[in-house]
Amino acid sequence: MSNNLPKIAWIGLGIMGSPMSENLLKAGYEVTGFTLEQDKLDRLAAAGGTAAGSIADAVRDADVIITMVPASPQVEAISYGPAGILENAKAGALLIDMSSITPQTSVDLARNAKEKGIRVIDAPVSGGEAGAIEAVLSIMVGGEQADFDAALPVLETLGKTIVLCGPHGSGQTVKAANQLIVAVNIQACAEAVVFLEKSGVDLNAALDVLNGGLAGSTVLTRKKDNFLNRDFKPGFRIDLHHKDMGIVTDAARNVGAALPVGAVVAQLVASLRAQGDGGLDHSALLRAVERLSGSQV
Length: 297
Ligand code: NAD
What we know:
The protein has 2 domains: about 10-165, Rossmann fold (3-Layer(aba) Sandwich), CATH 3.40.50; about 175-290, N-(1-d-carboxylethyl)-l-norvaline Dehydrogenase, domain 2 (Orthogonal Bundle). The protein is about 55% helix and about 15% strand. It has helices at about 15-25, 40-45, 55-60, 70-80, 85-90, 105-115, 130-135, 145-155, 170-200, 205-210, 220-230, 240-255, 260-275, 285-290; strands at about 10, 30-35, 50, 65, 95, 120, 125, 135-140, 160-165. Nicotinamide-adenine-dinucleotide (NAD) binds next to helix 4, strand 7 and helix 7. Belongs to the HIBADH-related family.
């Protein structure tokens, strides 16, 4: 199929990247993807995309390159070096990095890409796997206004609330704040769940009425069934939230912002991971509260 839409390369077809790239395919974009797992490449091909054998093959003809990998080291690995994006993309291409990484990595990437004539925006997202599938993500962008404007039609296929927050790295700073709020919110919900269960009230009913008042939240709406069913299949892995708590703690220290509650929750996330729960969904913070409360987990 050939049309006037920009050709997309997608690097990183994980929990988020797979459904997001499929939303572009449904909207008529041509998507060529590369990722480390063969089953995810097969999934892209089954959805109508093209599976590439390497990053170079994926990005060579692309007008827009979207990356969605775990963290800063992976963004650097796919971007730099002879086999990386910057060496193999065409000049004038727009690189949209949607991974959640340190703001400084985004700033450095934009500077290095500019030398190759490649434009970059950082565009991390919030909304989780469900938000990715439903194309209702919040997308927080850092970079130049003109590049934001160029990216907007593509981003509108992936999300609902799309905001330019400032220069390169600003999207990541806002995402770090997002992760602080989400972790603290999950922790509060988890503590409420253990308290309510130990008190013997109907948890399902309690969470419904709580969610209708000031205590209600997207976290409670999205994670209620995880709490009720002790279903901790990810979703968003504790390993990734541990990474994000490191980013926000470090970034806040750099600007002299105190995060006392965030620091405690960062320790609880780290402890959960150290106990072997890093691969579980972040709603598994419930397990940490249960352990602290003397329950068998
Ligand atoms: P994931 O681990 O499911 O997927 C990451 C993908 O990156 C994998 O498919 C892997 O093959 C690919 N990858 C890693 N290194 C690569 C390389 N060198 N070359 C090519 N591909 C490579 O992670 P995810 O949950 O999809 O998260 C991706 C990013 O989005 C992370 O930064 C995360 O913090 C962020 N995020 C995740 C969620 C969520 O709910 N899962 C929500 C918002 C933001």
